[in-house]
Design brief:
Blueprint: E1 13-16, E2 19-22, H1 26-33, H2 38-45, E3 51-52, H3 53-60, H4 65-77, E4 81-86, E5 92-97, H5 99-118
Antiparallel strand pairs: 1-2, 3-5, 4-5
Amino acid sequence: MEETRTISPGNCTIMHNGMEINIKKSEDILRILGKKYSLLIIGVLGNFPSVNFNELKKAVGCPRSNLLSARLKEMSAAGITQRKVIDLYPVSVKYELTEKGKELREKLIPFFMWIDCNCYFI
């Protein structure tokens, strides 16, 4: 006999390999990752130990500095990126992934690969 499952309010879960995973917790991080340039920033930052602001802006193709700055602040508050001030003259600011950000990037690699192989319409 087939098991009957019902959908109840607030039960935002997925089944994977016999495990029930609560994905309701994902809302906060998806608010950040779903914004323009966020995934590109994570992808690019993971290629280098650290990247300065202007290099990152060019690499991700972000046209406005304030937009890139806002994304970096959101990701920093979430513990994904960190900002380092290099106290030289002139002062330099570098961005890098935190350990949490590096782990997230590794989990995103299969997603990026899927996009590369399956999104021909772009």
